[in-house]
Amino acid sequence: MSDRGTDNHSEVTDFILVGFRVRSELHILLFLIFLLVYAMILLGNVGMMTIIMTDPRLNTPMYFFLGNLSFIDLFYSSVIAPKAMINFWSESKSISFAGCVTQLFLFALFIVAEGFLLAAMAYDRFIAICNPLLYSVQMSARLCTQLVAGSYLCGCISSVLQTSITFTLSFCASRAIDHFYCDDRPLQRLSCSDLYFHNMVTFFLCSIIILPTIIVIIVSYMYIVSTVLKIRSTEGRKKAFSTCSSHLGVVSVLYGAVIFMYFIPDRFPELSKVASLCYTLVTPMLNPLIYSLRNKDVKEALRKILGKKILLFNSILTVT
């Protein structure tokens, strides 16, 4: 099948992921960087989920959300990183049509779910700081489950719509996707279809996903800041802010990268690839570090688990 002359998307059986336009000698270095980052993602997020599930003291709404955040980070980075690493060694760099559809669908699902989950976490911090006496009542297990389920549902619905309108386009320009994974904007460049309807639906989805979540986060933190400033003791204000700083760090990295990515002019594909790295790999790597380094409960739970492992190891050595 040639790169050009395809008249309809149904004739496309595969795509080529161009990846980073660097010298072939640098592919080994990029592979090692991706491998190191992905290993840290696996270790950090699996470790975070294990700590939360095994320590009864972390059986609270905040850690329930945090466990789901680690789950989402783990899976959407796993949708991207393994294929990107394989392509550093592959000459063809191809991905099947079905594989491309699956990659876009899963990535869109998890990235949208993360946005809604971060909004739910902001609401959780708002209740914890502004209405602490009613926290256990308002943030019930049922409500927490509904918020998380709703995040996944919104992610699924938006992903179905985005994937459907993208792959009903006709791809007749080329098979070469100028990116390291299947994403909406690079696929648009391959289309010879009228993109008006596609762009309108994409704008609508962005409006109902990004705006509400950002509004919830901003309004929650406006109330939080107002409440914290009324606390007289410096120690009390510091403690209140410390519970929010980790979440703010995660929100800033994710939304900063996404907004930067989609506001870059489309004529700078290499710059958009770098921005994509921030929310596909860097954010999932940093999230466990941000929450573990700034959270006393997580650090204490980690020390407890490591202490048990060391004690078990020492007892085995003593027996032998």
UniProtKB/TrEMBL annotation:
Gene Ontology terms: cellular component: plasma membrane
Domain G-protein coupled receptors family 1 profile: 44-291
Subcellular location field: Cell membrane
Membrane-topology descriptor: Multi-pass membrane protein
Any one GO molecular function term: G protein-coupled receptor activity
PROSITE patterns for this protein: G_PROTEIN_RECEP_F1_1, G_PROTEIN_RECEP_F1_2
Annotated TM spans: 28-51, 63-81, 101-123, 143-161, 200-224, 245-265, 271-293
Pfam family for this entry, one: 7tm_4
UniProt cross-references to InterPro entries, sorted A to Z: GPCR_Rhodpsn, GPCR_Rhodpsn_7TM, Olfact_rcpt
Assigned keywords, A-Z: Cell membrane, G-protein coupled receptor, Membrane, Olfaction, Receptor, Sensory transduction, Transducer, Transmembrane, Transmembrane helix
Its job: Putative odorant or sperm cell receptor.
Family: Belongs to the G-protein coupled receptor 1 family.
Identification of the protein by name: Olfactory receptor
Organism: Panthera pardus
